[in-house]
C-alpha cells in the first residue's frame, strides 16, 4: 500500500514543499511507493507580494504543468478539518463534494489571511490587496472614480496600516490616482499608522529613507493614529479626526490561516504553530507546518521567520523534504535561514534594499528598484515545468545568490 504526503496549499510554501517532497522521493527511488498530493482550490501560485501594484497581470501563474512534470497530484478543494488522531483530513472539493483523505505525513502550508478586526464598516466599505480578487476590486474602484463628480472624498485615498504592505501600497497611490484622474488633479493620499513611527517592524535605520521617499511621492504620513470607523464617505480616526474619502485600503497585518488552530500545541499571537527546527508541529505527530503558519527560529540569535515570501520559499523546501525523508529513509534537514534582507518598493521614488536584521541600507532609488523588479518578475515565480530543473533548485538548503 502506497504512503501519502498531503500538502494543504499551493502558495509559495506549499508549491516548494511539493517540489522538495517529490525530489526526496525521487532521490530514494520510491516514486511508486509514496504519493505526493497538493490540495488547493486551483493549481495556481498567487503572487501576493505584488498585489499592491497597479498592473496585476500574470499574478496567478498556472503550476499544473509543473506539478505534472514532477509527479505531484493536485486535488481541487480546500482542507476544512484536520484529524491528527487518525491521520486524516477532510476536503471540500470545488465541485461541492466532500472527501476524507488519509495521510502518512501532512504539511500545512495554507498561508495567512488579512487581519480584519471588529472596526465598524471595515468589511463593508474598505478595500485591500490581500488576495487577487480584492486587488482587482480595488483597481476597478479606482478607475471608476474618474466617472464621479470631483470632490475631496473622490480625490482622497487613505491607507490604514503603515507596515511593509501599507508602505508599498501607499507609495504607488499618488501616481495611480493621477493616471486615472489627470496629472493636474488635486489629490490627497494618507497613510495611518498606529505606532509612533512609520514602518515600525522595519526599525529605525531605514526609516529616514522611507520618510523621504513617501514625502517625495506625495504621501501624508499620520502616526500614532488608527482607523476606528469606516463608511462610504470617509474614515474616522482614533484621534477623532474625520477624513472624507471614497477609498480606504486596509493593510493592517496578517494572521495564520484558521486551520492552524486545529493543530495541537502552542500558537503565537499571529496564530502560527510552534514548530521544531525540522518544521514538525510540536503538538502533533506526522504533521509539518510551513510558511505563514509556522513559528520557528531562523538562527541561533532569537530571530523568527517572518510571514513573508522570502521565508516561505525555504520553509517550504525544508518541510517538504523532511515530510518525505521520514518516509523514504533519507536524512532530515534542519531549517536555518540566517541571512535576512528586505526590498521595499517605494513607487516612483525607487526602492529600498536592506541587509541584516538591523536592516542596514545597501541600495536605494533606481538601484534598489532594479533589484525589486528582478525579485518581483523572476525570483518569486515558479520554476519551469521541467523535472530536472525544478529538482535542481528544490533541495532544502538551496539559496538564490543575490
Automatic annotation (TrEMBL):
The keyword Oxidoreductase applies. Gene3D superfamilies: 3.50.50.100. Residues 4-311 form the FAD/NAD(P)-binding domain. Keywords: FAD, Flavoprotein, Oxidoreductase. The keyword Oxidoreductase applies. One of its GO terms (molecular function) is NAD(P)H dehydrogenase (quinone) activity. Transmembrane segments: none annotated. Its cofactor is FAD. GO terms for biological process: aerobic electron transport chain. Pfam families: Pyr_redox_2. InterPro entries: FAD/NAD-bd_sf (IPR036188), FAD/NAD-binding_dom (IPR023753), NADH-Q_oxidoreductase (IPR051169). Belongs to the NADH dehydrogenase family. This is FAD-dependent oxidoreductase.
Amino acid at each position: 500500500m502506497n504512503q501519502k504526503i498531503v500538502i494543504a496549499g499551493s502558495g509559495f510554501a506549499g508549491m516548494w514543499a511539493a517540489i522538495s517532497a517529490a525530489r526526496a522521493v525521487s532521490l530514494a527511488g520510491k516514486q511508486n511507493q509514496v504519493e505526493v498530493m497538493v490540495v488547493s482550490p486551483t493549481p495556481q501560485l498567487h503572487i501576493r507580494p505584488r498585489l499592491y501594484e497597479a498592473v496585476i497581470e500574470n499574478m496567478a501563474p498556472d503550476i499544473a504543468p509543473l506539478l505534472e512534470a514532477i509527479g505531484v497530484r493536485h486535488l481541487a478543494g480546500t482542507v476544512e478539518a484536520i484529524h491528527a488522531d487518525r491521520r486524516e483530513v477532510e476536503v471540500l472539493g470545488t465541485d461541492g463534494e466532500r472527501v476524507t483523505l488519509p495521510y502518512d505525513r501532512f504539511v500545512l502550508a495554507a498561508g495567512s489571511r488579512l487581519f480584519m478586526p471588529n472596526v465598524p464598516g471595515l468589511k463593508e466599505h474598505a478595500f485591500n490587496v490581500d488576495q487577487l480578487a480584492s486587488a482587482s476590486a480595488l483597481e476597478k474602484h479606482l478607475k471608476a472614480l474618474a466617472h464621479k463628480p470631483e470632490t475631496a472624498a473622490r480625490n482622497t485615498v487613505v491607507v490604514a496600516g503603515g507596515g511593509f504592505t501599507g508602505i508599498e501600497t501607499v507609495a504607488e497611490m499618488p501616481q495611480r490616482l493621477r493616471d486615472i484622474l489627470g496629472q493636474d488633479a488635486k489629490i490627497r493620499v494618507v497613510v495611518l499608522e498606529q505606532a509612533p513611527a512609520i514602518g515600525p517592524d522595519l526599525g529605525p535605520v531605514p526609516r529616514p529613507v522611507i520618510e523621504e521617499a513617501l514625502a517625495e511621492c506625495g504621501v501624508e504620513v499620520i502616526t500614532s493614529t488608527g482607523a476606528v470607523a469606516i463608511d462610504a464617505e470617509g474614515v474616522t480616526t482614533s484621534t477623532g479626526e474625520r477624513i472624507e474619502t471614497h477609498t480606504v485600503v486596509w493593510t493592517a497585518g496578517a494572521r495564520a490561516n484558521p486551520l492552524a488552530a486545529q493543530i495541537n500545541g502552542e500558537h503565537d499571537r499571529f496564530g502560527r504553530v510552534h514548530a521544531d527546527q525540522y518544521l514538525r508541529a510540536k503538538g502533533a505527530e506526522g504533521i509539518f507546518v510551513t510558511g505563514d503558519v509556522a513559528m520557528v527560529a531562523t538562527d541561533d540569535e532569537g530571530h523568527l521567520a517572518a510571514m513573508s515570501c522570502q521565508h516561505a520559499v525555504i520553509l517550504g523546501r525544508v518541510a517538504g523534504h523532511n515530510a518525505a525523508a521520514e518516509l523514504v529513509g533519507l536524512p532530515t534537514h534542519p531549517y536555518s535561514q540566517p541571512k535576512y534582507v528586505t526590498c521595499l518598493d517605494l513607487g516612483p521614488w525607487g526602492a529600498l534594499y536592506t541587509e541584516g536584521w538591523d536592516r542596514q541600507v545597501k541600495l536605494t532609488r533606481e538601484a534598489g528598484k532594479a533589484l525589486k523588479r528582478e525579485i518581483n518578475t523572476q525570483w518569486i515565480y515558479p520554476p519551469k515545468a521541467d523535472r530536472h530543473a525544478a529538482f535542481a533548485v528544490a533541495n532544502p538548503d538551496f539559496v538564490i545568490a543575490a
